[in-house]
Amino acid sequence: MAKILIVDDEHMTTEMLATFLRIMGHEAVDAFSSKQAWDKLSYVTPDAVLLDIMLPDVNGLDMCRQLRRNTATTDVPIIIISAYSPPLTREADEAGANAYLVKPISLQSLKNTLASVGIVA
After folding, report:
1. pLDDT for the residue 112
2. CA distance 1 to 41
3. Which pLDDT score is estimated for 84?
């Protein structure tokens, strides 16, 4: 079982992703802002991070860069999630993300993406 940190200010999205993760046998930890995420990272070591681009306090791409610079999270897989169309995949790659998911996210696309970064159900 993997521990996945979900960082998204949309409560419905966070609940849906947490439900999907539990169905797959993983543990979900949620944060609704980058500040909450950093607070949780002080006592939680996630196996992966699902990170929205649009957060209320810090842009998710900026947070991705910060996670890459932090020694505790530098190697943790980061999956950017966003409803942007067209997707900001190049920007996510440049920020250090491992993968990109476009909202709305299906259970199968989440499974496939997690598998692509080494998290299997």
Report:
1. 97
2. 18
3. 84
Per-residue pLDDT tens digits for 102-115: 999 999 999 999 99
- How far is residue 100 from each of residues 13, 22, 69, 91, measured CA to CA in Å? 15, 21, 19, 10
Q: Exposed (0-12), middle (13-18) or buried (19+): which is 46, by Cβ within 10 Å? A: buried
Alpha carbons 45 and 11: distance in angstroms, whole number: 22
Q: Which two tokens stand for residue 43?
A: 């006592």
For the chain, the C-alpha Rg in angstroms (whole number) is 13
| Mean pLDDT of the residues in the chain | 96
In sequence order, what DSSP letters do the residues of the chain get, joined into one string? --EEEEE-S-HHHHHHHHHHHHHTT-EEEEESSHHHHHHHHTT---SEEEEES--SSS-HHHHHHHHHHSTTTTTS-EEEEE--SS--HHHHHHHT-SEEEESSPPHHHHHHHHHHTT---
Percentage with pLDDT > 70 across the chain: 100
